[in-house]
Amino acid sequence: MKKDIEIPVAKDVHVAMIREWNKEFLDKDWNAYIINDRTTPIEMTMVVSKGYDKDCKSSTMRHGIGDMQPKSFRKIEVVQEDVLGLNNEFFVTFYADNKLYEKRFVFEKNTVTENNLVNIQLINKEGILAK
Question: Which domain of life is it from (predicted)?
Fold first, then answer.
């Protein structure tokens, strides 16, 4: 019976941390973005985020992103510098092609640094993609 259950694999959807200038505070912030790099839209997108370590954990945040067009991106949240010292998990759930998809993305602790920046093509800014 288990062999009859199809579990779809979420491809071409990513989470990235982007370092951006904050005009209000005149400083750079780390912002988490969801990227739909698919050729089809995704619907009813939800993101649950949290930071954790063996001794400490942050609040769990839930974000209703909604529908996203193909080759688009949307900001999830600002991530505080203190939380980057923890493992940061983003659990993404969405519908596409009449199926429910889910995928877990993790930024391991202390890996979100300016030394690890690469160009994120769709956003056209420097950032870090989650594993």
Answer: Bacteria
Closest CA to 93 of 25, 26, 42, 21: 42
CB 116 within 8 A of CB 37: no
User: What pTM does this model have?
Assistant: 0.91
* Distance in angstroms (rounded) separating the CA atoms of residues 59 and 83: 10
d(CA 95, CA 118): 29
10: enclosing H helix or E strand: none
pLDDT in tens, 72-83: 999 999 999 889
The 10 Å CB-count burial string (b at 16+, else e) for 70-95 is eebbeebeebeeebbebbbbbbbbbe
101: left (phi over 0), alpha (psi -120 to 50) or beta: beta
